[in-house]
Design brief:
Number of domains: 1
Largest sheet: 8 strands, parallel
CATH architecture: Alpha-Beta Barrel
EC number: 3.5.4.4
Low-confidence stretches: 248-255
Enzyme class: hydrolase
Shape: globular
CATH superfamily: Metal-dependent hydrolases
CATH topology: TIM Barrel
Distance between the termini: 23 Å
Oligomer: single chain
Number of helices: 18
Structural class: alpha/beta
GO molecular function: adenosine deaminase activity; metal ion binding
CATH class: Alpha Beta
Protein name: adenosine deaminase
Cofactor: Zn(2+)
Order of helices and strands: HEHHHHHEHEHEHEHEEEHEHHHEHHHH
Strand content: 15-25%
Amino acid sequence: MSTYEGLEAQLRELPKVSLHDHMDGSLRPATLIELAAEVGHELPSSDPDQLQEIFRTNANSGDLVKYLETFAHTAAVMQSAENLKRIAREYVEDLAADGIVYAEIRWAPEQHTAGGLSLDEAVEAVQAGLAEGVEAVAAADGAIAVGQLISAMRQNDNAAEIVELALRHREKGVVGFDIAGPEAGFPPSKFAASFTRLAEQMLPATVHAGEADGIKSVRDALVHGRAQRLGHGIRVAEDITVTTGPDSRSKTGDGGEDLIEVQLGPVARWVRDRQIHLEASPTSNLHTGAVSALTGDAESGMDAHPFDMLYQLGFNIGVNTDNRLVSGVTLSGELAALAEAFDYSLAELADFQVNAIEASFLDYEDRQALTAAVLEAWNA
């Protein structure tokens, strides 16, 4: 077993928190194949391992729009209450198997009504499946809590209706709102009235921004989206200037170590100083081209991700999977990959769990209790 595999196995046993994981991008390959056969939808492969590899290869295109094309396959099998319920139940079981004890799962109900379900029926089916999953985990002597984040698809211009849907179910499993889909060309300002409605009703929002679009998108999410968190958000690094120069303490100018000067622009400073949480998804950020947009290098690897720079500068950043099926990842694997790239200790990996808990949409008392429980396990 390699060091990476050993660390991933160790991390799988530790309690973790996931804030950015799309249910409709995280189906079990075998389940997708079975359900696709039932509904007559053609997949690129009927072998689970091969299908997973095809999705992962397609995801690693460097283009968010192409990355999102995979969802046509998953959405095709998620058009009935029975299938939604099953997928939600399995989703929770898979999270728990990876050591996740709290998750805010996001999905877009408006993409699951082609089979005749109403928006409310779709949400109710998913909630029933989530509840069954929680019960199944408890029956196996585990523990997990989940909440729904209802996503509106930016390109559909249907945010107002989806906001009302989220508000109707806020006491029945829904903990917040999100907008997803193609980022460029669909800024939060287009849905400003919907975000105002959420604020008036005090339902929190996280906004996809700073992934496929740059710093203007981040600023728009903060101003018009009233975002409490940023989905991905890593292109806030565009507003950070890092310069190096000779050590001014060296009298000769020779042999001195380089000094690094860091300047934060107004958006980056606002995000950092007010601890707006960044829901980073390292592998997905590589797959969608978010990292290469910063580096200018399409071949950028994990060590080029701005994650460590943002962490070292004091940004509130967490680790997520985004889409476990599409990118072929787990949260334990993402943490291990970051540890390998940046030489993180377990204590630093624990920091990311605390960051996520503090930024979650749980009540204050629940956040405090969860933080204590998670740190006790990590410290042990």
